[in-house]
Automatic annotation (TrEMBL):
<protein>
    <submittedName>
        <fullName>Diguanylate cyclase</fullName>
    </submittedName>
</protein>
<feature type="domain" description="PAC">
    <location>
        <begin position="612"/>
        <end position="664"/>
    </location>
</feature>
<dbReference type="Pfam" id="PF13188">
    <property type="entry name" value="PAS_8"/>
</dbReference>
<dbReference type="InterPro" id="IPR000700">
    <property type="entry name" value="PAS-assoc_C"/>
</dbReference>
<feature type="transmembrane region" description="Helical">
    <location>
        <begin position="12"/>
        <end position="30"/>
    </location>
</feature>
<dbReference type="Pfam" id="PF08448">
    <property type="entry name" value="PAS_4"/>
</dbReference>
<dbReference type="InterPro" id="IPR035965">
    <property type="entry name" value="PAS-like_dom_sf"/>
</dbReference>
<keyword id="KW-1133">Transmembrane helix</keyword>
<keyword id="KW-0472">Membrane</keyword>
<dbReference type="InterPro" id="IPR000014">
    <property type="entry name" value="PAS"/>
</dbReference>
<dbReference type="InterPro" id="IPR013656">
    <property type="entry name" value="PAS_4"/>
</dbReference>
<dbReference type="InterPro" id="IPR001610">
    <property type="entry name" value="PAC"/>
</dbReference>
<feature type="domain" description="PAC">
    <location>
        <begin position="487"/>
        <end position="538"/>
    </location>
</feature>
<keyword id="KW-0812">Transmembrane</keyword>
<dbReference type="InterPro" id="IPR052155">
    <property type="entry name" value="Biofilm_reg_signaling"/>
</dbReference>
<feature type="domain" description="PAS">
    <location>
        <begin position="414"/>
        <end position="484"/>
    </location>
</feature>
<feature type="transmembrane region" description="Helical">
    <location>
        <begin position="50"/>
        <end position="70"/>
    </location>
</feature>
Amino acid sequence: MPPRQHLTRGTLLFVVLIYASVAAIWILLSDKVIEWIFPTPSELILASTFKGWAFIAVTALLLYGMLTKLTREETEAERKIRLEYRPSRVYAGLSLIALVLTAAGLGLTVSRDQEKIADRLKAISYSKSREISDWLGERRGDAELVRRDLRYADLYRRWKQSGDRQAAQRLFASLDVLRTLRGYRTISLHSPSGECLWSSPAQRCPALPARQAFIRRLAEAPRPLSEHFGPYPLDNGAAGLDFLAPLETGGGPRPVVVLSTDSTLWLQTTLSNWPVPSRSGEALLFREEGGQVVFLNKPRHLDTTWSSLRLPVNSPTLLAARLLRGEAHPGEPVTGSDYRGHSVIGVIRNVNGTDWYLVAKMDVPEMYAEALTDGVWVGLAGLLAMFIIALLRQRELLFLAGQTSRSQEERLHAMQLIGEIADSSEDAIFAKDLEGRYLLFNRAASRFVGQPAENVLGKDDRAIFPEHQASMLMELGRQAIAENAIRTREECLSLPDGERIFLATKGPLRDDNGNTIGLFGISRDITERKKAESVLRESEGRFRALVEQSLAGIYIVQNGRLCYANPGFARIFGYEDPNELLEEAELSKLAGLAERNLITDNMERCLREECEDLHFAFTGRRRDGSPIEVEIYGHRADYQGHPAVIGLILDITERKNAERDLASQAAALQQSNAELIRTNQAMIGRELAMVELKLQLNDLSRRLGLPLPYVQAELNAASCAPPEDRHDA
């Protein structure tokens, strides 16, 4: 059976990258899909568990399918051309990649869960602070209703000023009805000095000096509004909260109605109701009082009353203290410690209309515990990938052990082949040890130096080249080894056939273990090429001088814009520097408005390959605005990899003026010729008429028998004029 295919580095990277891609996409998208499908927390937890199992199943099947395909049986030809060695660092790198991807997945999971918990705490703190604010707003609304209702103030004034007991009873009855309807613990009426005048139900008002002082300040305020006082501890350990409504009695200190409520039950119920299962989730109310953080509700994790829990504001890590010191911002997640000294994360918000703050917090270990489930699955997937890499490495080692002897034989054959290749090369190929002695010297190198390889091997450059060149070559070799890099440079060497220029590439020579054992080099004789380059530079210089000194304007147009113009071009249009002309950019701008389209159309037609050459004339404008007649020639060519028009432009203003003068002279000459022709025709006509008359006289004399008066032969000759002349005559 032929051996199975040996996995190459590329195939292994392919496997790992496919796995990493699937894992990354799974991590990024799966939680979003689950949260969208399963709204309740219990369903979300169950779905997350099944999601982890599905991830393991999918990745395992994917890896199995790829490895099955990659480990198929191969032909003997494929086996022979296969690379036989893969260093351990490849597998170490793959393991490192898998480890990094796993760590990145864990980090992403933890970061995602932290963001989720932070958003949850934001929502809880906002919801509960809004709920408490609304509850306080309702109670303030009751107090404001009492303050604005003039009936209460009128009944109180009638009672106090005229001693109307009936008015007092009506006042007390109205307040008692309000207590019953709104569910207040007590409603009491206080004098401007804070003295309790009446209370419902009938019981002694607790003497609270702080509240009495607060009532006196409120009663004497210029523009009093309803306020709240508290919370404060009651005799039964509950929290009392009062809402004070000053009555408008028409001047002077005002009496105050106090609506007292027991806030403990409602606040504790509201704050202890955590929307999701949590071992440490907790909401607390607090405020600053006398340099201390005073908590306003009973803590969940401490068996104490709410009024006894006070912590100093200067506590360095206390979550509430950090906000009061300005180290944290309301509504943003902040870490610190709670009243137990435990590390927590929380979000703090202000309760509107009060000096209270609400903090929604949970323990940091619980936050990380929520990420543990997803993290375990990610970690297991990473371990699976590293386990597969380890199996592949073991398979590699077994393969290498079986191929060692054959590899050595093939290596010897390869060395011989390399020697033959080196000898067949036209370039000098050599190798040196760390001391600069030659280990390899091919046939081309021997031909260059005029010595056989046997005379050079084991010696350094001083045995071949002059002292200064040998020192230079040995120093360059040491630099290449020290820099551990391949360097290419030109070297001018003195050889038996004269000075030669070589393009030498040198670099460190390494053994199978990657250790530097010497220097290798390849030198190509570029003497003829350098000479050709020198000739080319001279030719280019002559051509450039010819172009720059040409009287004709030479230009290059590309994409409708001037890319090059010689000084002759600039002079034609009145510019001293061609660079000033190039700022105009477009050739058409050098013509009048009427002829710009002509230039643009011709240039575009040439660039579109509708014509190979172009030739036309137009009236241009010099820099000073004067007109100029120019004739333009162009040819489509390739310039810097793109089509362009290259050509020359001639100033034909003088030629055009000469042509106009010649045309004027030709017209005058033609007119003179016409006049001469008409005069000649008139004279010929008269002569013919005379000849005809003389012929008639000769004919008459002949009839009369008289001698002829005129010579008949001359008259006959004269009468032979062209018909058109006789017709004109």
